[in-house]
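Internal ticket #5521
Category: modeling
Description: The requester needs a full-assembly model to guide mutagenesis choices. All entity lines are attached below as received. Residue total reported by intake: 876.
Assigned to: D.W.
Attached entities:
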Amino acid sequence: MSIIEVKHLYKEFKIPKRQEGMSGALRSLFHRQYLTKPAVNDISFSIDCGEIVGYIGPNGAGKSTTIKMLTGILVPSSGYIRVNGLIPYKERQRNARQIGVVFGQRSQLWWDLPTIESFELLKQVFQIPAERYRQNMARFRKILELDEFLHTPVRQLSLGQRMRADIAAALLHDPKIIFLDEPTIGLDVVAKERMRSFIREINRERGVTVILTTHDMSDIEKLCQRMILIDKGQVMYDGELAKIKETFGKTRILIVDLEEEIVDFSLDGVEVVKQEGNRRWLKFNRDTITASQLISRISENYNVRDISIQDPEIEVLIRNIYENNLPSEQAFTNKAKP
Amino acid sequence: MIKTYRMYWEFTRKSFQRSAAYRVDSWSRVLGNVMSLGIWGCIWFALYYGKGSVENISFHSMLSYILISMALQGIHSAGTPLWEIQRRVRTGDIAIELLRPYDYPLRMLFTDLGSMSFYFITAIFPLYTVIFIFFQPNIPLSASQWGLFILSAALGYLIRYSLELTFGLFTFWLVETGGVEDIFYFSISLFSGSVVPLWFFPDWLASIASLLPFQGIYFVPNAIFVGELSGQAILPALLNQVIWLVICYGLLRFVWAKASQKIVVQGG
Amino acid sequence: MLKSCLRGLKFYFYMVGVSIKTQLQYRYAFVMNILGWAMTYAGTAITMWVMLYSFQTIRGWMFWELLFLFGLSVLSWSICIIFFFHFRNMDEYIVEGTFDRFLVRPIHPFLHVVALKFDVGAFGQLLFSIVALIIAYAQLGLNWQLSQWLIFLGAVIGGTLIQGGMLVLISGVAFWTTRSERLFWTLMWPAKNLMNYPLTIFPRVIQLLVTFVLPFAFVNFLPALLLLDKTKESFAPYWGFFTLPVGVIFFALCFKFWTIGLNHYKSAGS
């Protein structure tokens, strides 16, 4: 059952055009030209109850704009949006009760208040029943280890602490859907891992639908069954993570440990991307040469001690997608279902 | 030397171009200026209503005074405002400026020159040309009077610039300048003769005003412009401005040196 | 409906408490702020005094009457500041994304903005205006009847609503232009200063404008005519009775404008 449905969503922004030079500066004082830039250009997708979806794309692709329309902050230029049956921008306050929002770069909490008071204020704002509030707080305090800073004003929290407080604040009223905009930005490895396991947990235990934007591909790899990749306001890929690897991961890395030091190691159709002592990282394309062909060719010419194959990291994959700038129709057979 | 000035000039050019991007600001500033002018024009008209000349100043001279005063204030308003300087100090943005190979007070001056000349060309000049043609106020009649007025107005600008930047830099030591700031603003607005010329002050207040640097900002250039200050009397007035400028600029350099030291030692 | 109103009120009072606590945290700044505001207004009063030193009267108004007129507008302005002054910072709330978070909460964003600050610094203006009014009252030898005290009360409440409505109006503009602070200082501030002087000194068109379009005249001038018994002015004396209803209507219209602006909200960044 789909909880979020978006059809042919558009959002345009008007941007003033800069005119060049001194005379341009004078001219634009009286007459300014505007460019209409579509930030979201015909996006459609639907998300089922209980999914964790990674919503990714480069800067300015339209991620935040989409999230802001889903949360009711922005009014779309045109298109169809339903979030659990509500039109977010029309029924903003009702929508607010069923969603939780975390903007990684901006806290939702009250800057000057001790953390616990922010929570109590939210309890009032969202009318959370006392019992429910008590249970939730007890749980979040344990899992997110809030106790160490509950009485510290939000402005004095570290980034990791603030993010934990923010995510607890977003979940306090038991939302059905939670939007996480860059929830791991600026966190260290340990804090990131903790955040991820918490997201997994609330998804599993409470069936909360999670929509996540991130720049960190390992967030996606570790959390999401599905990802929606957008660029220039359009959906480039919508589907399983494994599939994108299979479809687009044509290059592989072969790691070879050689017996002896060889200075001019080279093979046709293979690129040496890294070397360290006698170890070489070789990049090859699965279409031109298979792994077994490559291995046999190497062992014909050199003495090999050990050999292993590395899957391409998804980040490299995504980068390839952008660098090649493939037209979406041809490259992505797995485009969003209509 | 020439190279250095070319660098500062570049700031002027850049800020001139950038000014166009803030056209809402520009228009709202024009509107605000015209409104102030209107209000003060009405006030002076009402004050003179039914009276001939007061303290030997005719209504026509007073109208001319308020017109040129508002034009000058309009030009001044395009510079970096005091609160912006204070913001830069509070946020530590100013510390970054120390790392750059230029003199901050000078760079600011040249930057403001750009935004002010943009504002002058696009707003103040055309606007006040029309207003002047309409009201026919007293204007300087000779080239030398024009020259002296422009010189005096420039000195006035530099005095205000030095005072304001100095005051802005005090934010390094005082976290909250609330009350002091308002006394500062009030002193500038009253003692500079921005809206009430020193002629109409009670004697004791006028003598206080004559001992302060503020009269050099608007009162002296305005009085030269409308011809109330002329002949031999101009020279001591200009000299007074120059002396105050030297003192104020010296103070600015001193406070800036202390402030830079503080940034270097404490990191802002 | 009633329940959500109660919840809103409860939220508002809680936030007011928080805001006061925060402002009192920085005691030095708090005192300086009050002092600063009292000083600014005292400065304007001194300028008026200097001006009238050589001229004695302005269109039949002498200094103490002028001080009364000024004091009355500052009194309602200071109450307005307590609740609405931060509306001029709307542009900042939008640019910094503060406003976004109000939209994902089940309380009307307007209430959220109102609850952002309860400006105790306005005590400075309040202090000034009360002192100025008392001095003027004594110097003019006034002796009001109950009906005049009621007009005074209506002027204060209505004046607060009119000026508050103006601030709401300006903050609403920020939804389109993301500029409001500038607009306040360059437009509303000079327009407000217009009220410091008797309206009769301004051209007829301005008099009509501030009576029927942006009803500043109701804030102090029209009630002051009744309160100072200046019936010889070109305005009919009964205008001053209507400050309160005018305030209510004007504020409601400004609020409507604000909610229209809300639908044009563009959010920060992208």
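Resolution: model delivered.
Comment from assignee: The radius of gyration of chain B is 19 Å.
Ticket closed.
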